[in-house]
TrEMBL record:
The UniProt record lists the keyword Transcription regulation: yes
Family statement drawn from the similarity comment of this UniProt entry: Belongs to the sigma-70 factor family. ECF subfamily.
UniProt-listed NCBIfam families: sigma70-ECF
InterPro entries: RNA_pol_sigma-70-like (IPR039425), RNA_pol_sigma-70_dom (IPR014284), RNA_pol_sigma70_r2 (IPR007627), RNA_pol_sigma70_r4_t2 (IPR013249), RNA_pol_sigma_r2 (IPR013325), RNA_pol_sigma_r3/r4-like (IPR013324), WH-like_DNA-bd_sf (IPR036388)
Signal peptide stretch: none
Keywords: Sigma factor, Transcription, Transcription regulation
RNA polymerase sigma factor 70 region 4 type domain ranges (all copies): 115-166
Protein name (record): Sigma-70 family RNA polymerase sigma factor
Domain RNA polymerase sigma-70 region span(s) in chain numbering: 21-82
Pfam families: Sigma70_r2, Sigma70_r4_2
Length: 183
Protein backbone atom coordinates (compact mmCIF):
# COMPACT_ATOMS: atom_id res chain seq x y z
CA UNK A 1 0.00 0.00 0.00
CA UNK A 2 1.40 3.44 -0.88
CA UNK A 3 1.82 6.20 1.69
CA UNK A 4 -1.05 8.35 0.40
CA UNK A 5 -3.48 5.46 0.91
CA UNK A 6 -1.96 4.71 4.30
CA UNK A 7 -2.36 8.35 5.34
CA UNK A 8 -5.95 8.34 4.12
CA UNK A 9 -6.44 5.29 6.36
CA UNK A 10 -5.12 7.19 9.42
CA UNK A 11 -1.70 5.51 9.58
CA UNK A 12 0.44 7.40 12.06
CA UNK A 13 3.46 5.36 10.95
CA UNK A 14 2.99 6.57 7.36
CA UNK A 15 2.68 10.15 8.62
CA UNK A 16 5.86 9.78 10.65
CA UNK A 17 7.78 8.37 7.67
CA UNK A 18 6.58 11.26 5.47
CA UNK A 19 7.59 13.71 8.18
CA UNK A 20 11.06 12.20 8.59
CA UNK A 21 11.64 12.07 4.84
CA UNK A 22 10.32 15.53 3.90
CA UNK A 23 10.81 17.89 6.86
CA UNK A 24 14.29 19.04 5.76
CA UNK A 25 13.55 19.22 2.01
CA UNK A 26 10.44 21.29 2.84
CA UNK A 27 12.43 23.54 5.15
CA UNK A 28 15.11 24.07 2.48
CA UNK A 29 12.48 24.78 -0.18
CA UNK A 30 10.77 27.36 2.03
CA UNK A 31 13.98 28.91 3.30
CA UNK A 32 15.17 29.51 -0.28
CA UNK A 33 11.88 31.28 -0.99
CA UNK A 34 11.81 33.62 2.02
CA UNK A 35 15.24 33.46 3.71
CA UNK A 36 13.67 33.42 7.16
CA UNK A 37 14.48 30.53 9.48
CA UNK A 38 11.53 31.28 11.78
CA UNK A 39 8.94 31.52 9.00
CA UNK A 40 10.31 28.44 7.23
CA UNK A 41 10.07 26.39 10.44
CA UNK A 42 6.56 27.67 11.17
CA UNK A 43 5.34 26.88 7.67
CA UNK A 44 6.85 23.38 7.81
CA UNK A 45 4.94 22.75 11.05
CA UNK A 46 1.73 24.15 9.61
CA UNK A 47 2.20 22.07 6.46
CA UNK A 48 2.39 18.82 8.41
CA UNK A 49 -0.55 19.85 10.58
CA UNK A 50 -2.59 20.46 7.43
CA UNK A 51 -1.37 17.21 5.89
CA UNK A 52 -2.70 15.27 8.86
CA UNK A 53 -5.88 17.32 9.23
CA UNK A 54 -6.81 16.96 5.54
CA UNK A 55 -5.34 13.51 4.92
CA UNK A 56 -8.71 12.19 3.77
CA UNK A 57 -8.66 14.69 0.89
CA UNK A 58 -5.31 13.53 -0.49
CA UNK A 59 -5.35 12.34 -4.10
CA UNK A 60 -4.34 8.65 -4.13
CA UNK A 61 -3.21 8.97 -7.76
CA UNK A 62 -0.71 11.75 -7.02
CA UNK A 63 2.70 11.42 -5.40
CA UNK A 64 2.85 12.48 -1.75
CA UNK A 65 5.79 14.82 -2.43
CA UNK A 66 3.82 16.84 -4.98
CA UNK A 67 0.88 17.18 -2.63
CA UNK A 68 3.08 18.03 0.34
CA UNK A 69 5.01 20.75 -1.48
CA UNK A 70 1.74 22.17 -2.82
CA UNK A 71 0.39 22.37 0.75
CA UNK A 72 3.64 24.06 1.85
CA UNK A 73 3.46 26.58 -0.99
CA UNK A 74 -0.15 27.57 -0.27
CA UNK A 75 0.55 27.71 3.47
CA UNK A 76 3.50 30.03 2.83
CA UNK A 77 1.33 32.26 0.67
CA UNK A 78 -1.31 32.38 3.44
CA UNK A 79 1.31 33.30 6.06
CA UNK A 80 2.81 36.01 3.85
CA UNK A 81 -0.65 37.46 3.28
CA UNK A 82 -1.20 37.60 7.05
CA UNK A 83 2.08 39.49 7.45
CA UNK A 84 1.08 41.90 4.68
CA UNK A 85 -2.30 42.58 6.30
CA UNK A 86 -0.61 43.10 9.67
CA UNK A 87 1.90 45.55 8.18
CA UNK A 88 -0.85 47.45 6.37
CA UNK A 89 -2.75 47.65 9.62
CA UNK A 90 0.24 49.02 11.52
CA UNK A 91 0.77 51.57 8.78
CA UNK A 92 -2.83 52.68 9.27
CA UNK A 93 -2.41 53.17 13.01
CA UNK A 94 -3.08 56.74 14.08
CA UNK A 95 -0.07 58.99 13.70
CA UNK A 96 1.82 60.46 16.61
CA UNK A 97 0.17 63.45 18.30
CA UNK A 98 0.30 66.68 16.29
CA UNK A 99 3.01 69.29 16.76
CA UNK A 100 0.85 71.31 19.14
CA UNK A 101 1.16 68.57 21.76
CA UNK A 102 4.00 68.64 24.18
CA UNK A 103 7.26 66.83 23.46
CA UNK A 104 6.51 64.58 26.41
CA UNK A 105 3.20 63.49 24.84
CA UNK A 106 4.94 62.62 21.57
CA UNK A 107 7.67 60.68 23.37
CA UNK A 108 5.11 58.86 25.52
CA UNK A 109 2.97 58.01 22.49
CA UNK A 110 5.93 56.69 20.49
CA UNK A 111 7.21 54.70 23.46
CA UNK A 112 3.79 53.19 24.10
CA UNK A 113 3.35 52.27 20.43
CA UNK A 114 6.82 50.67 20.34
CA UNK A 115 6.09 48.70 23.53
CA UNK A 116 2.77 47.50 22.13
CA UNK A 117 4.41 46.28 18.91
CA UNK A 118 7.16 44.49 20.84
CA UNK A 119 4.66 42.86 23.17
CA UNK A 120 2.50 41.75 20.24
CA UNK A 121 5.56 40.05 18.74
CA UNK A 122 5.95 38.03 21.96
CA UNK A 123 2.42 36.66 21.88
CA UNK A 124 1.72 33.28 20.27
CA UNK A 125 0.46 33.81 16.70
CA UNK A 126 -3.17 32.83 17.32
CA UNK A 127 -3.41 34.93 20.51
CA UNK A 128 -1.85 37.88 18.71
CA UNK A 129 -4.34 37.57 15.87
CA UNK A 130 -7.27 37.47 18.33
CA UNK A 131 -5.91 40.52 20.18
CA UNK A 132 -5.40 42.49 16.96
CA UNK A 133 -8.86 41.65 15.65
CA UNK A 134 -10.41 42.65 18.96
CA UNK A 135 -8.45 45.69 20.05
CA UNK A 136 -7.09 47.08 16.78
CA UNK A 137 -9.85 46.11 14.33
CA UNK A 138 -12.70 46.50 16.87
CA UNK A 139 -14.25 43.10 16.10
CA UNK A 140 -16.62 41.41 18.53
CA UNK A 141 -15.78 38.06 20.07
CA UNK A 142 -18.40 36.33 17.94
CA UNK A 143 -17.01 37.92 14.75
CA UNK A 144 -13.49 36.84 15.70
CA UNK A 145 -14.74 33.32 16.45
CA UNK A 146 -16.33 33.14 13.01
CA UNK A 147 -13.29 34.58 11.20
CA UNK A 148 -10.84 32.26 12.94
CA UNK A 149 -13.15 29.22 13.09
CA UNK A 150 -12.82 28.89 16.87
CA UNK A 151 -15.37 29.10 19.67
CA UNK A 152 -16.26 32.46 21.28
CA UNK A 153 -15.03 31.05 24.60
CA UNK A 154 -11.61 30.36 23.01
CA UNK A 155 -11.56 33.96 21.76
CA UNK A 156 -12.35 35.13 25.28
CA UNK A 157 -9.57 32.98 26.73
CA UNK A 158 -7.03 34.29 24.22
CA UNK A 159 -7.98 37.89 25.01
CA UNK A 160 -7.79 37.29 28.75
CA UNK A 161 -4.34 35.71 28.46
CA UNK A 162 -3.08 38.44 26.10
CA UNK A 163 -4.26 41.22 28.41
CA UNK A 164 -2.91 39.42 31.47
CA UNK A 165 0.47 39.19 29.73
CA UNK A 166 0.52 42.84 28.57
CA UNK A 167 -0.97 44.58 31.59
CA UNK A 168 2.17 44.54 33.82
CA UNK A 169 4.22 46.24 31.12
CA UNK A 170 1.71 49.04 30.68
CA UNK A 171 0.97 49.49 34.37
CA UNK A 172 4.70 50.15 34.94
CA UNK A 173 4.57 52.73 32.16
CA UNK A 174 1.54 54.42 33.77
CA UNK A 175 3.25 54.56 37.17
CA UNK A 176 6.37 56.13 35.64
CA UNK A 177 4.25 58.63 33.70
CA UNK A 178 2.20 59.52 36.79
CA UNK A 179 5.39 60.15 38.79
CA UNK A 180 6.71 62.44 36.05
CA UNK A 181 3.45 64.41 35.98
CA UNK A 182 3.57 64.88 39.79
CA UNK A 183 7.08 66.39 39.59
Amino acid sequence: MDRVSELRNNSEAAFESVFVEYRFPLYNFLYRKIESDFVAREVVQLTFIKLWRFRHHLDPGMDIAIQLFRIAKTTLIDELRKVEVRERHYASMPPAPVATDSVMDVVTYNDTKARLLKLLDLLPPKRREVFELSRLHCRSNSEIAEIMAISPKTVENHLTLALRFMRPFFSCLLIIFANLVML
